[in-house]
Amino acid sequence: MIKNHNSQISCDKKINLFGLLADKKEVFSYTIANKNGFEFSVINYGATITDLKIPVSNNKKIDVVLGFETLADYINSYYLPSPPYIGTTIGRYAGRINNGQFILNGKQNYLNKNHGEHNLHGGILGFSRKLWNVKSLVTGDSSSITLEYISKHNEENFPGELTVQVTYTLTEKNELEVSYIAKSSEDTIINLTQHSYFNLDGHSNDILNQELIVDSEKILETNTELIPTGDYIDLKNHPFDFIKSKPCPSSIDNTFVLNNENAATLISKKNNLKMTVTTNQPAVHIYVGGNCFNKIKGKENTNYHALSGICFETQNFPDAPNHSHFPNAVLKKEETYFHQTKFKFENI
Q: pTM of the entire structure?
């Protein structure tokens, strides 16, 4: 018997107890699949993607995202020297907010600081460390799961009670579709993203043999603390010009301004696999990492390091509330936030 779950959910073998939080609340793992043999798993702690298994031959599947075996490992990963946020949903605001401050409707807001003098990925206890409620689990031609979190007014000092739903859909076109909908009880700021580390060679490899394409001609200029200055850097003749396919970089932590819905493409020649990322967001923040500092083992006893995976954090611009010429990050009381990103997988 699964407690505290919506009656729409079918209690079948695709739902498993994943662990218990300190307050004894249960965390479950949910697995959905499509007719092509793709399998996707998520836990309701942080609405976190744990597995994405893709057929690469008649009898072989590879897991293309980093993850941990236990709930304790996910919890403990936030105490690493640099928390990797593996697979999680980021909010209320993805990326950095300078000095943890912004002005909204003429009022200065002071957020919790969890990254030096700045607010990063929503603060000390962001959405990635919350227990989400499962609202629906649908199986069929497009299997999906919807999770919800209600962020109270002044949580991490963000204004407004924010109700967020994320729906993960595994389509018959071999797409993992991620859709966010949010509403607030008063004007607030919002920037949600998905923080999976992808590796099309398989999660136990490094990413250096994979090819990257990014449909962008400029990145945000940042200072030494990775805070946007408000200016842009032209990518012509720049090492991060990925308009044409190039090997994945060994180090990158940058926000690419998108020309259109086509964000990025990752290619594995080893597995003849291509992942295309499309989004309705104005940017994709690309980050290579996954380092667990030899303190926590990944799935299948894997040692995750600084080259274990690559993130495609589709989102608004970091620190947008402090730059009037950046895309608007304010969600007004009467409005609905909608963010959709698709990760499409194809054999090549």
A: 0.95
